[in-house]
Amino acid sequence: MTVPEVVLDENHSWPTHGTYEYTAYYHSRQEVVGFDEFRAQRERPAYDFAVIGAGPIGAALAYKLATDWPHSRVLLVEKNWAEPDRIVGELMQPAGCQAIERLGLRTVFSDIGAVPVHGYYISYRGQSIYVPYMQRAGEQLRGVSFHHGRLVMNLRAACKAQANITCVEGSVTELLGDRAKRITRVRGVRVGPSRTTADSASVDVDARVLTFVCDGITSQFRKQLNDRPVEMISHFCGLVLEHEPVDSATYFDGPTGTTEHVARPAPGVANPLPMPHNGNVMLDGVGPVLLYQMSERETRVLADIPGAQLPSEANGQLRATLRASLARAAPKHLYPGLHATLMQALDDARRIRCIGSKFIPATSNSVDGAIWIGDALNVRHPLTGGGMTVGLWDVAILTELLRQHGKLPDAQTARHVKAQWQWRRRPRALVVNVLSVALHALFAAETKELGLLREACFAYLARGSYFTMHPSGFLSGLLPSPLLLIFHFFSVAFLAVYLRISGSSVAYSGGSLAFRVYSAFYTLYIAAGVILPVIWRELQP
Q: What is the mean pLDDT of residues 114-120?
């Protein structure tokens, strides 16, 4: 597939340029085996690896396994090989791009109209700051945003091109193996048709080395590893804005295009974003409102509505809540072009697409012969766009550990590799996961204390130097240091204490000096209650 998009990125060495080597397989169905055909095969090959799910993580994993061990056989089972349509998973942080490159898929962003992302524009109470991504050795590291379905199809195209991957359209209904109260060792999978019923036929397939569970956030096998209840934090409601392309050079000065910003909303159908080619975060809504481009002509809007219960769309409450949130986030006097475009997009939307935002900490895996990976293992709030970064680095670390042994691992080696992987993945996963939940608590700000912490966070980021760049490193996944994250979080908390005691806070004002001192240190207690329980849950074995 080639998307007829205008590419305005100023750096022509960036992998969104050029041609994707597996484009010919994008729409191809010849390499996909239907369930009936798979079931009818008389001589089914013995598989070394079985991968459940061909989303971003499963497809990248299957490709890497097939290319690392070209003589192995990989079974990749996916319910639906058509292009998926989701409203999240559309922005890859720089660390995720690094993982993609380590997996040998550097050109996967080509031919899908992807857009480079330089950093974040953040607005709060009529003020704005710019948080660029980190630089290394003079190189400006960047992320990329895109249509989720197009990226998945490019990753699947790479799998279809590998002769040693069998792509099956079907559903894995059961993990086969040894059981006590729970399954203790996985030896293969039971495959049925995509839509299974009680009397559906099935095929049992052995996986001699490992089975990988990559069936995403709605994983049907997660309870075999982690049966704790899922915590619903909020909901993201999605809209799409359509506009004309705007050259990023309009918004950046200097040869590297990273610092100065001309934030003048353009009239008409021009790109209405305060800062194109960046994530735009507006903090004055009911919850945070995110905007990022999926292409040069389309921008995704994700409006967060805090709480486990979503307002009803049937009685108009959901649209009323969204209208109020968007109007507050992008007020007409500050962002006239964006405000008008948001209101028009809301009016034109036939239905509001929403997705629940969950937090599911990783659980250590004691099941031999199987590894849960990606959102099947570990889910964080999508506010920071870190899900694919964590999942792809999980794939990169795991496959590198497996490859160090040179040959296909036996059961004992696989057990050893899995234990190593669980510790190696933890620092980056912990930073991204904890940051997503903690930032959402601050940015949604349902109490005065959290509002004070949000104000302190904005003031902290505005200081520049490492006050800005270290948090940028956490956000982008480039700085996987849990201790440094804790240091900066409590630095923000102590800044909130200062703002409250000094009387300079706008978010939490008033009261005598004694009350301000009391409420300041109560805010510190609230801050500890935000981050420490999440860290504790992430550290559990």
A: 90
Looking only at the bridges linking them, the beta strands covering 119-124 and 279-282 are: parallel
C-alpha distance from residue 415 to each of 138, 189, 394, 506 (Å): 41, 19, 16, 54
Per residue in 172-190, pLDDT tens? 999 999 887 788 899 999 9
Give the span between the Cα atoms of 369 and 362, in whole angstroms: 18
**How far, in Å, are 183, 496, 540 from residue 217 at the CA level?**
21, 35, 20
The amino acid that residue 142 corresponds to is R
| The token pair that represents 229 in the structure block | 């209840």
What is the DSSP track for 120-132? EEEEETTEEEEEE
Span between the terminal Cα atoms of the chain, in Å: 44
DSSP 369: T
Q: What single DSSP character describes residue 312?
A: P
Q: What is the 3-state secondary structure (H, E, C) of 419-469?
A: HHHHHHCHHHHHHHHHHHHHHHHHHHCCCHHHHHHHHHHHHHHCCCCHHHH
d(CA 71, CA 334): 60
Contact of 29 with 137, CB cutoff 8 Å? no
Whether the CB-CB separation of 94 and 143 falls below 8 Å is answered with: yes
Query: Alpha helices of 161-202 — where are they, by DSSP H?
Result: none
Q: What is the 3-state secondary structure (H, E, C) of 327-366?
A: HHHCCCCCCHHHHHHHHHHHHHCCCCEEEEEEEECCCCCC
* Radius of gyration in angstroms for the set of CA atoms belonging to the chain, rounded to a whole number: 24
> For 322-341, how does the pLDDT look when each residue is reduced to its tens digit (9 = 90+)?
999 999 999 999 998 899 99
**Residue carrying the six token digits 């205008």:** 6
Handedness of CA 61, 62, 63, 66 (dihedral sign): positive
Q: Residue 399 and residue 401: Cα distance in Å, rounded?
A: 5
Q: Which residues contact 12 (CB under 8 A, 6 or more apart)?
A: none
31: burial class by Cβ within 10 Å (0-12, 13-18, 19+)? middle
- pLDDT tens column, 359-382: 998 888 889 999 999 999 999 999
d(CA 403, CA 406): 5
